[in-house]
Please model this.
Amino acid sequence: MNLPFYFPTVEMQDRKSLIQTLYDAVKKGEVVAYDPDVDDEFTTPMSFNECETKLGGGMMQVGKNDDGSPKTQYADPKWGDIKEFLVKEEWFFDKKYSKMECRIIGICPIRIYYKTLNTGEENADEENTGNLTKVKTFWIYFPEIRKVLANTSVFNDNNNAQRISFDDLFFFRRFDSYIVQEGNVYNNRMINAYTLGGIPNMEESERIRNDIFDTEHDLWEF
Model:
């Protein structure tokens, strides 16, 4: 269900992935990227070069020259490493229509790759020994990027002649996800900070989802 966000991993003439769309928007200055290491409140802007580095691209040191100075080479961002997106949402009760609604606030691409234990080098071969590393790259304020998403077409596997946009995918919630965090009095901690991981994580995610569902139905009288 989420494949339209991931593919193509190499930009095509008429199509590109979600991360490539966000990257191009930051590069052209159409949106502002925010540092995820500070908070998720869109308070600290990031430069384009910082975003590129978080994606595994930009100028990289590949050795040394004959005179001993660092030898650098440009590397393209590793699009295939972006395998998850963190979506910040606000759920609220719409009194006009008497139902729960969801407003998307921000998107944060997450880069997942293997880092070898000895040298710290990145390695795309998952069979090699290494640590699975997840890095939050940058936050994008969703209302600011909607115009760009609405003008970027996505492959429609039901009818290739009738394309849809990334904005349509988000607006109609045509994606699969699970809850990893909720606003709370405990400094908005992530679910994996107070569960054992694995199945307990998913059970807590489902509990939060059911709370939202029950809240909507408890407001009705039958």
Residues 156 and 162 are 7 Å apart (CA to CA).
